[in-house]
Amino acid sequence: MGGLMSTTTSFVSKGSWGSVYRVKHLKTGVKCALKIIPKAKYREQLRVLVVHEKKLQFALSGDNIVCLFSAYQDTVNLYLVMEYAKYGHLRRFASRPDGLSENTVRLIAAQLVLGLEYIHACDVLYRDLKESNVLVFGDGYVKIADFGVSRIYRGRANTFSGTPDYMAPEMADTYHGYGLEIDYWALGIVLYRLLYFRHPFRGADKIKARELLHNINTVNLSFPDVGENDELTPTHHFIAGLLERDPLHRIGRHGGDIKQHDYFKGMSFMAIHRKLVRFQVNLPPVPYEATTELDVLPDIDPDKPMNYFDSF
C-alpha cells in the first residue's frame, strides 16, 4: 500500500497496549486502523511481543487473517497499520442477544475453522482465540487478529500463555505440554459465548483463574436450551466435541475432518472462502470520535514496512 497515511484521524478505542485510530490512505482513500503503542510504558516486554507479532502477521496472508500493511516507529511510539474493521470485534455481538442468529454463528464458525486451518498449516500455534481478537468487517465477514502470544509450532508447547477464560485444560500441564488442539478448545468457548452469552464453566459469578481451571476439569458441560429429556442437536454435539477435555479426542485434532461434521451439513466452505455467502449484521458500525489532535505520524512510505522496525 504505497503513499502516506493521513494525519487527520478518528479515535476508535483504547486497549491494554495502546490506542486505535481510524486513518485514511492519502492516495487510495482506503480506511485503515492505526494502532499506536507508547514505548515508555512497556519497554522490553512490549518490544518482544510487538516485534514478534509484526513478523508473524507480515508472514501470514490468509483471507481470514487481518492484514498488517505497515509497521514503523519514532522516538516515542510504535505504529501498526492494518485493515480497518467497520463493525469492530466480535465481543460487541456476544453482549447483545439480538446480535447474531444461530445460522450466522455457524457461518462465523466456518470462517474461524478456515482461519485456524491456514494458521496451523503455516506451523503457527495461535493461542489467543477470543471474541475481542476476531474482527468483523463491512461485508459481515470476520478475520483473526492479534498474534502477540502466538508462536512457531515445532512440536509440543509448554508455556502457560493466552487468556485464562479460553485456555484448554491441558495448558496447565507444563510437563507434557500441548498442541494445536488448544485453538479448537478456544473456538468452542467462543461459539458457546456467542450462542448463550456466558462462559460454559464460569457461570454468572466472577471467579479466579484457578477456580475456573478447577471447573473446566470437574464440571460437566451443559447447554441452557437443553432439558433433561431433550436430544442434542448438531450444534450441541459440535461445541461439546470442541470442549472435549481429552485433546486426543477433540474435534479438529485431525485437521480437515472438522469440516465434515454435521454442524456444517449443507454448507459450502468454498463459497464462504470466495465470499459468496451474504451476512446480515444487526449492529451499528463501531463508533469513533473525530479528532485532529494526532499529528505525530512520520512521513513514511508504507511500501517499505520492514525497515521501520529493524532498529527497535
TrEMBL record:
Family annotation (PROSITE patterns): PROTEIN_KINASE_DOM, PROTEIN_KINASE_ST
Enzyme class: transferase
InterPro entries: Kinase-like_dom_sf (IPR011009), Prot_kinase_dom (IPR000719), Ser/Thr_kinase_AS (IPR008271), Ser_Thr_kinase_AGC (IPR050236)
Keywords, sorted A to Z: ATP-binding, Kinase, Nucleotide-binding, Serine/threonine-protein kinase, Transferase
GO molecular function, one term: ATP binding
One Pfam family from the record: Pkinase
UniProt superkingdom: Eukaryota
Signal sequence, renumbered to the chain: none
Reaction it catalyzes: L-seryl-[protein] + ATP = O-phospho-L-seryl-[protein] + ADP + H(+); L-threonyl-[protein] + ATP = O-phospho-L-threonyl-[protein] + ADP + H(+)
Example GO biological process: intracellular signal transduction
Keyword Repeat among record annotations: no
E.C. no: 2.7.11.1
The UniProt record lists the keyword Nucleotide-binding: yes
Domain Protein kinase, chain residue ranges per copy: 6-264
Stored Gene3D superfamilies: Phosphorylase Kinase, domain 1, Transferase(Phosphotransferase) domain 1
PANTHER family, alphabetized: SERINE/THREONINE-PROTEIN KINASE (PTHR24356), SERINE_THREONINE-PROTEIN KINASE GREATWALL (PTHR24356:SF1)
Protein name: Serine/threonine-protein kinase greatwall
Organism: Galendromus occidentalis (western predatory mite)
The encoding gene: LOC100908372
